[in-house]
Amino acid sequence: MLDCEFTEEQRDALQEVANVGMGHAGARLAQLLSAFVALSVPRIRLIQRAELPAALDEMMSFADNVTAVRQGFKSDINGEAVVIFDGEGMREIAIAFGGEEAQDEHDETEVAYEAANILIGACLASVFEQLNCTLTYSAPRLIGRNIPLAVVVQPDTLHWGAALLLEVNFALENRNFRAHLITLTADESIARLRHALDELLADI
Length: 204
Description:
Strand content: 25-35%
Radius of gyration: 17 Å
Structural class: alpha+beta
Largest sheet: 8 strands, antiparallel
CATH architecture: 3-Layer(aba) Sandwich
CATH class: Alpha Beta
């Protein structure tokens, strides 16, 4: 069985690395929307594949349908990132990019891609720079627009048995905007992540 457990020092280091990475993503979003962006504390947990839908439902109390974009990343550590917007979040992003007229399906799909690219790129570039790892991305893919959260990730389509789930949510002060960024590091990369964290700790 793969040893996926982190020591307390590794977990603390990962929390700090995630805080910095998510902070970069929040700063880019704030710049885009010209508004103060509040970030949650990143949540980190090891999950089995079948547990993912329940974990997302627990973390994201969306009452309405969502729009989600998925993008893989590769380096010494492989995984994927997913950005999930509620309807109000999509409206705010669409207006920021194209004004009030950016409301048709094509425009909103392009907006979802661009916004997800900004958040994923800012966060992961910071995280992997701290871990001294190179990084490449696969092309982003729209999971769906105006779909139930329950169908964003289907366990039977995943190719890993366990993964490290990292989640943060973004909100705008005095507005209804919400978005979540999650990353999933597949089980075969967790040992390499632990090694990278050990090297980071050794340099402190």
